[in-house]
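Q: Could you fold this chain for me?
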Amino acid sequence: MATHFQRVSLISGVGFIRCRAWQVALLGCLLLGLAVGLACNFPSPRRSPFDPTVTVQQTLAFLVFPTGSAQPTFTIPLFPTDLPIAWPSPSPEMFASPLPPPQPTATPYPFWGLQTATAGPRQPYSGRTPDPEATLPPITYWTQPGDTSPALAARFGVSPEQISAAQPLPADGLLPPGLPLVIPNVLGELPYPSALLPDSAVVYSPAAAGFRVETFAAQAGGYLSTYVEEVDAGEWESGPEIVQRVALETSVNPQLLLTFLEYRSHWVLGQPADPAQVDYPIGFYVPEYLGLYKELSLVAKQLNIGYYGWRQGTLVELEFPDHTHIRLSPGLNAGSVALQALTSKFYRQEAWLDALFGPQGLLALYNELFGDPWQSAASVEPLFPTGLAQPTLELPFAPGQLWSLTAGPHTAWTTGTPRGALDFAPITGEPPCAISTAWATASAPGLVVRSGRGVVALDLDGDGLEQTGWVLIYMHLAEDERIAFGDWVDVDAPLGHPSCEGGTTTGTHVHLARKYNGEWLAADGPLPLVLSGWVAHAGERPFDGFLEKDGQIVTARPDGSHGSTIVR
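A: Sure. Below is the predicted structure, expressed as structure tokens.
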């Protein structure tokens, strides 16, 4: 069945708008005019409406799908072609002392981070490799949880073969935390090496498992506690419900979302000072992203872009609204980079520093609201314990049935999350987007901790918390006959019928992704996705790829054509 490209590409529940060149240019001119008209209204370092110079950049970034990465729409195959605790309210005792300016310190974890191997002067970062005659002393780096050799090589600007260790390093797997590595210093001394937030303060991790947004917002007594919004047609949600929903959907820590919301618009502890902050409480000012839910979703996307880009080594520098760049210090942790990346979208470099480290900056506000994040992290990190391995998982359908692999590794949830999901469609001959008579089944035993809006979250450790341990996320399961919240299921138990519900898609299928301790996992990464012995491999582009088992190959094809059929 032929595939085709559309101006609106509908991909696993996420719609991307692809504009023509003249439309982008016209939009840019209109927004540039608005930015010039507001050029004197620059934000103060804390709780400012927005920096208008970033409006054009942000709008285009979210409206234009990246060049060359368009994907065919999904089509269902019609026939086989081959065989709980309450959180304290803000109080004077929770106020932290003003933070000092950033200093070149290592990550606050013991034995993790960056050190120089030998004494000697270090050159400032110049954007290029130092001349051979100016060779700098090598760096000793202690591995952090989640590190891999390819990602470290990208961050330090070297090849994996140039990284030395006292023991052989896995080519693609997770490196053990605290392992000393000697790495050539080809970048010189980079700015802003100070750690900002632990990883557990950015992802929706065990550190926030007992946090209750509704309780906190009510005690804070700000605008958020009284706000309501029609998020979906006919479905109204309160401000705290929206924060919790974004946190669960994107797996971003709700405490960080609340901190950034308060910093940008006073919504949590007070009232928005500008009427525009009611519709745009964060200040992205993208017309299609109006209201708290969509603006917070953009915050989560930017945090995930920074977090997982650093994890994978694909993000190594920041660009500010004035188009200046800095190289990220390679010893930072993913959580710190996520916050740096988010704030770099709003502030020029000098204001950005103050927004992060100033006495009225984000870190001071976070400590004011929630206490020291490093202290909380000490009880739950590392998020990836040494020797972590995926439990046995089965394909999400019954043995003997014919299904198609319609999408290889692609975004686990939405923009910014790693390529952690696979799509499977039942081969039943039913019309596209019909609720299938087939069942998606549990890949492992577990407790259903979320069931709604087309999503089922299956908690494999059974503690009832989506923020801890292994969790499977199934998307596009129809409401009719879907498994209920709180049910315990065994492997192969029916969870729901594949459909087009729970997002925008053009064909009936089930989307399967994984999290561990709140962190999304790449399907073709250091913890590869393995289903019934089939190992996922990513293609050059998202949605491409294949499954491999004992020399057999099943190739992802959006139309379910020859080579994509798989049977348990």
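A (continued): Residues 113-183 form one domain.
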